[in-house]
Amino acid sequence: MSVNRGGEVAFRVSSEAALEPECTSLSCELSATATEPGVVTAVALVGLLALLTFAYVRDAETVCRRERRRVMDEHDAFEEFADRITALDPCPTEATAPSAPATQVVGTRHGTGDWGVGDIRLRRVLDTYRDTVMSLPHYSEEYDETVGESIAAELGPDTTVSLASNGTLSPGLQSALVDRSRRASAARRSLADAIDAELDALADADTTLSGIDRRRSRLNQHLDGIQQGRRADASIDVWERLGELESECEAVADDRQSTLRDPPMSPERVADDVETGFYGYLYAPMDGPDHPVLASIATLVDRIREDRDRVARRIADGV
Fold this sequence. Notes:
The structure is a single chain. The protein has helices spanning 26-34, 42-86, 102-106, 120-131, 137-142, 147-155, 157-166, 171-225, 231-261, 278-283, 292-317, and strands at residues 2-5, 8-11. It is mostly helical and 319 residues long. A two-stranded antiparallel ribbon has the order 1-2. Strand 1 (2-5) and strand 2 form a beta hairpin. Helix 1 packs antiparallel against helix 2 (42-86) and helix 8 (171-225) packs antiparallel against helix 9 (231-261). It is rod-shaped and about 95 Å long. The termini are far apart.
């Protein structure tokens, strides 16, 4: 989840418990199945390993689509919050003296219904924030925050200071709340666009790697279908072509490494001083590898090398 702090973009990482999900992903389930003795025959195991090769990428696509939906839900929530605050009647400038202890108002935990004393306009601001941003199911699941803590994280600490010191909704505070909310919404839109770019990259990687694996499989089938005694030249040709497939994988890995070095979005600062960037933010909650595309490439390269070794032994044995 992104955070807009006065124009600064950061990625908020979920609580520690949320980073340890149950084994529900495709790669996790396939790995468990593959290690169960006696579950599959050799032929079925080959097919299972083929699925597992690309399960990392498909899990990543699932994670990205889910996160994009959450980000856009937040985008919509901040837009609604801004619209509703705009519609409020602010307190006249000459009547904006503090009217209540701030901590009683902005420090209350969300969902209790106890907002303390204070100007009715300010209570409406807090109620509106609770009913929009903090009402999102995933928001309450991932962050255990008071309303004041959430507003400080999303709209800036100075916003909560203003809420605390004014004790009411002045025209200036109203304008600041609306402006910060619009910026938080825009930050979500930018983050959603960045996730879209990653989804496109994952789809391209899946298509490319699946194509390479199909060609690898066809080469093996071709060689196995040649009659014994005529395999020498065919084996050399297949061995060379498998080498070309490995080179293609290396090119895909180089492209991915370049993408990782130049992500579609980079935070100026990370919440709670956690060292995480765009890809860490996306894939930290996964129960698979931190770099799913590179993990899939490595798995496929291992299979290609095993095939080359097998063909090389055939050549050496004259089979």
